[in-house]
Design a protein that fits this description.
Blueprint lengths: L2 H27 L2 E7 L8 H15 L4 E7 L11 H11 L7 E5 L1 H9 L10 E7 L12 E6 L3 H11 L5 E5 L4 H13 L8 E4 L5 H8 L6 E5 L15 H9 L4 E2 L12 E2 L4 H16 L18 E3 H7 L11 E3 L5 H4 L1 H81 L5 H29 L7 E3 L1 H18 L3 E5 L8 E3 L1 H19 L8 E8 L4 E8 L6 H6 L15 H11 L3 E6 L5 E8 L5
Parallel strand pairs: 1-2, 1-3, 3-4, 4-5, 6-7, 6-8, 8-9, 11-12, 14-16
Antiparallel strand pairs: 10-11, 13-15, 16-17, 17-19, 18-19
Length: 620
Amino acid sequence: MTQGQRISSLAAIICCVVLSLVCHGSLATESKQIMLLHSFGRDFKPWSEYARTIRIELNQQSPWPLDITEHSLVTARSPDEDPEVPFVEYLRALFAKRSPDIIVSIGAPAAAFVQRHRQQLFATTPMVFTAVEQRRVQYSSLTVNDTVVAVRINYLAAVENILQVLPNTKDVIVVVGASPIEKFWKEAIAKEVEPLANRIKLSWTDELSFEELLRQASALPPQTAIFWELMIVDAAGVVHEGGTPLTRLHAIANAPIFSYDESFFGNEIVGGPLLLVADSSRQAAAVAIRILSGEKPSEIKVPVVQFAGPMFDWRQMQRWGISESRLPLGSKIYFRDPSVWEQYQWQIALIVSVILVQAALIVGLLYEHRRRQIAEANSLQRVNELAQMNRFATAGELSASIAHEVRQPLTTISASGEAGLILLKRRVPNLKQACRELESVIKASHRADDVLNSVRAMFNHEPTARTKVNLNELIQQVISVAAGSIRSNGVRLETDLTDGKLPLVMADPVQLQQVILNLVMNAIESMRHSGDEMRVLRLRTEPSLAGTIAVRVVDSGPPVESEVVKKMFQPFFTTKSGGMGMGLSICKTIVEAHGGQLTAAANKPRGMEFRITLPLHQQT
């Protein structure tokens, strides 16, 4: 193939593609003409709802632009067929140049009209009959260009629904007008509901004007229900469009209203099994699109649209006292007032979460508080046990001093007793001198008893309650216990105890006595290794203006390094070769348990000063 031939072939292909695109574009842009034919008018329920949703479905499903025109067969409001002739002439003239691509008739009167004038109007134009009850379709008159999307109204099921949700119902008022289609349905309803004749009584409104109907509806007897069929033309010849008549009836009626079509649902009727407008409209639009796409109408068969699952209006249920337990199985309830949870779901969840977190924190804090109390009690018990052990250790150190203190009054007792006996055994007893010796015996025994009581109180294992304590008296008791060690180690004791009435402290006297005794014995121990230096122990009490009282224990022992001073209150720290390192730690714990402080500082130029600070007893 030459280069020129290749170019010619390519040009031919491009031309074909361009021509196909042009043809496809012209087909795509060519609009389809659809005529909607109403039975009574554009605003008559329920057909107005069907027409509205059919238009929506057609525009959504159609791949072509649509030109939809609507016309109304007003002659269906009267039994006289003579006025149809001018309407036929009108439609023939309107579509003389171009017939519609398809006709969609809405309602039974429109379908019957087209079937009567098929040859005069659009003999070959495809037609879809929709929003029509299957009993109103003349199937024998259908042509190859016709198809039907019919519905089935089950009046028996609709009335049985009334008896299920309101089982005490005795009378049912059927709202129906005086037009031909309404008279047809009056006879159909009476025949279909005949099996329930022994349970309910049917009454009709076709011989009443609508105003008379409203007056009767406002004063209906109990156990009455209203069934809304149609109200197109009343007995007075008044035409009723839209939803106004049903709204007026609902506003004044003293009985619940039921119906069969979804177009009436949402404000006035209670509910039940209903025909869904969307089901019929979707099917009708789909059939119309299939016909416009080239399918033969007579070959398209669709199932009859029947009642959907029961649906009820919560507001009407509340108004008429209908229990949810009376509803048929599988019922759906609409317009239910949202619960507090549905309205404030995330706020409630947040509040509950916060409360749960707070509760968890409170429980955790209570648990930790309880654990802390147990730990503090255990710690205090361990401190008391350690303090008891420390007191026993101190007893070992003081044993010689205690023995010396007890031996002195015992020696005095023995010597004074013997002297008293000698004086009494003389030929002439010296009674006066014997009395003095016996008095010495008594004083010495009291002295021994005081020493033993002090020691017993010091080392008693039983806990004592806190009482009001005079620190001066407590220090004097400590001096009595440690007097032997003070003398045997050559220590000079200097006391500076506040004169007058010293303020009291609230304390455990045994524990405070142990603290002061430990400090005194530590001071004596440190001064024991100070060589020939003067050994001086100073004890001093002094109240302050800050509501506390201080006890100072000062010794003249060897100098102490600052690092040792910082660590001496730490557990198990000691400078003694055989010490446990617990004495000062226990003393500090005891003082702090009394709300006070125990501090230490190096004394210049030598020795140590310990300071106990305790809060005063608050008078009440």
